[in-house]
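note to self — DONT lose this again. spent like an hour looking for the file last time. sequence + predicted structure for the chain T wanted, 244 res
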Amino acid sequence: MTVSFHKYDPHNFFPGTGALDDNGPKNEHNPGAHHAVNVPLNDGITDEQYDMLFNSIIGKIVEKFRPSAIALQCGADSLAGDRLGRFNLQVQGHGACVEFCKKVGLPLILFGGGGYTPRNVARAWTYETSIAVGCQDNISPVLPQHTPWREQFRQDTLFPTLEQILGEPRQNRNPQKRLQEIVQHISEQLRFVQAAPSVQMQTIPPDLGAIRQEVEERLKEENDERNDELRRAREAAVGTPMEM
């Protein structure tokens, strides 16, 4: 099961894919059908809207699909001020998604992703690493004085405001009714999804005695082969068969 939250504009924003009804192979007999969840968003979505969508949709997927683990790509190009981004997301809202996935209680692995404004990437992944290790309440919001290229961060805080980042927030083109329609559509899509197969994981101890015997037999065979080659070489040299 894959889930993607992204800016979507098929005519003006690369790559133009990821519509709400792009949900995997169209053939219903293909096991991948309905297992791609796309959450297409417009410019200007806020922390509150994004987190509402994320928590609602991921919560429904975990309940329905019952995954055994979550792989979360923390793409920083969704943050406000990114060279390619168009949202009003801040570091706190971005990190809240990591916190939600962590609270689900499943094995979780975090990956980096897009992000084309380095100061955004550094802030986001610093904060999200602190969430991953459980020290987000202890991390200082003030950038350390010894931070390399500190002047490139523009503000000396881990959590700059939208006004500091953009001057003026982008116009929000995500009406609440549209967001509710997205959640409803995905809920309907999940009706066709079965839970992931559950396999109990157990460590099977190796039969060390059998392995040792196999290795010893293989070594004996190799030694016998070397002795045979040596005998044949000596016979060829003296012209008389030799007993070993």
